[in-house]
Amino acid sequence: MSTFRELHAPGRLLILPNAWDAGSARLIQECGAAAIATTSSGVAWARGYPDGNALPTRVLATAIAEIARVIGVPLSADVEAGYSDDPRAVAETVKAVIGAGAVGINLEDGAGTPDLLCAKIEAVRAAAALAGVDLFVNARTDVFLKRLAPPDRAVEATIERARRYRAAGCDGIFVPGLAEPEAIRALVAGVAPLPLNVMAYPGLPAASGLRELGVRRLSAGAALASAALGRARSRAGAFLADGRSEALFDETVEYGPTNALFPRS
């Protein structure tokens, strides 16, 4: 099995379909995924919480352990902004996530300052070293997603943050909301040698185009979880309306082969 870090090597594009529970993770692995990442929104919704640093960290650690139990590929956990503004508390959360089986994390700046994310990265890096885990820290910056800078300064502002996060100890830069090829090309060069991670987004080039641009990681984000919930809602609504069975069995997995994917203990 390749290590998670090796999957980000220059010239490679790691495609990460994001899971939200053990079942979705195991099915994604069966589709050929070289690694599994979680989506914070999907994990939170599946456990009855909103996205946005509301999920109790004990619930997060349990979810990661459930996923790690059923997969045989590297697992990266979305820990949002670390569920705290205290870098020491963030480090404790990441220690729990590492203990649950994750070898990578996403840690975001969101509405917080770059100074705060730098402090969190430093604390997390120290905690991983003490745990003896080669943790891949993917620093997510929301400059594009949340429009934290004017459009004509978005690339420059992202590069400025990326350089600070690299100095703090991150291993990759994640820029959700980025889709325009020229901006991607500029960011690949600007954040080098760190790998650039982009997220599925309308208008984003396909894998072949992203490879040519130098992108090394492509995440699905919440898209798969949202699609699954959207399909469940439409099927449930139709079933409640007319009670017909046929549509419920359209594009489903087979019970026997799916059940056989999961260990009994």
General description of the model:
A 9-stranded parallel sheet has the order 1-9-8-7-6-5-4-3-2. Strand 4, helix 4 (87-100) and strand 5 (104-108) form a beta-alpha-beta unit. The protein has 10 helices and 9 strands. It has a single domain, classed as TIM Barrel (Alpha-Beta Barrel). The protein is 45% helix and 12% strand. It has 265 residues and is α/β, with parallel strands linked by helices.
How would you summarize this macromolecular structure in one to three sentences?
The chain has 265 residues and is α/β, with parallel strands linked by helices.
- Termini separation comes to 22 Å
* Element-level helix/strand string: EEHEHHEHEHEHEHEHEHH
- Averaged pLDDT: 96
Shape label: globular
In this structure, how is the largest beta sheet organized? 9 strands, parallel
**CATH third-tier fold name:** TIM Barrel
Helix content: 40-55%
Which class of secondary structure composition applies to the elements?
A: alpha/beta
* Share of β-strand residues: 5-15%
Architecture per CATH nomenclature, i.e. the level-2 architecture:
Alpha-Beta Barrel
* Total strands: 9
Taken together, the total number of domains comes to 1
CATH superfamily: Phosphoenolpyruvate-binding domains
Largest beta sheet: strand ordering: 1-9-8-7-6-5-4-3-2
CATH secondary-structure class: Alpha Beta
Unreliable residue stretches: none
Radius of gyration: 19 Å
Number of helices: 10
Layout of helices and strands, plus pairs?
Blueprint: E1 14-16, E2 18-19, H1 22-30, E3 36-38, H2 40-46, H3 57-70, E4 75-78, H4 87-100, E5 104-108, H5 114-131, E6 136-140, H6 154-168, E7 172-174, H7 181-191, E8 196-199, H8 207-213, E9 217-219, H9 223-242, H10 255-259
Parallel strand pairs: 1-9, 2-3, 3-4, 4-5, 5-6, 6-7, 7-8, 8-9
Helix pairs in contact: 1-3, 3-4, 4-5, 5-6, 6-7
